[in-house]
Amino acid sequence: SARSRSVPDVSPIHPTPSGTRDVLPDEMREMHAVVEAVRAVFAARGYVITGEDVYLEPYQSALTGLDQAVREIRSLTAANARQQRRLDTLEPLIESRLTISREAIEVRRTKGLQAAARIVGAGEGEANMAEIRKVLGEMRSEEDELLQQRVRQAQADAQNAKWTIVLGTFTALLLAALACFKITRNIAGPL
Question: What's the pLDDT score for residue 19?
Answer without folding.
Answer: 40
